[in-house]
Design a protein that fits this description.
By secondary structure, this protein is an alpha+beta fold. The chain is about 40% helix and about 15% strand. It has helices at about 20-25, 55-70, 80-90; strands at about 35-40, 45-50. It has a two-stranded antiparallel sheet with strand order 1-2. β1 (about 35-40) and β2 form a beta hairpin. It is elongated.
């Protein structure tokens, strides 16, 4: 569901208050991060909420993807094989 337009003001420091109803609807909290786009031709500013993953979760997803990709290519991803390959290439 899209919110109705609401009026807000920009402070002398360039800060804009996002109305509480919109913050609640979008799940915004203090520290939320956005990318800002300006469209002069449309006299518009767009805020796009960025979704950052926790580093550990992002790493786990990367490892999962890597293992799936290796399996598709028929590569041995056992710890023993990985260590052997590392030693071989370090020589």
């Amino acid at each position: 569901m899209e919110s109705q337009g609401q009026i807000t003001k920009m402070s002398s420091r360039g800060q804009v208050v996002i109305p509480e109803g919109i913050r609640d609807e979008m799940g915004l909290e203090a520290g939320s991060t956005f990318v800002v786009f300006a469209r002069k031709d449309a006299d518009s500013i767009l805020l796009k909420k960025l979704k950052f993953q926790e580093p550990v979760k992002a790493f786990e997803e990367m490892v999962k993807w890597s293992r799936q990709h290796a399996a598709e290519k028929g590569l041995d991803t056992s710890v023993k094989k990985i260590v052997e390959t590392q030693h071989k290439h370090r020589r």
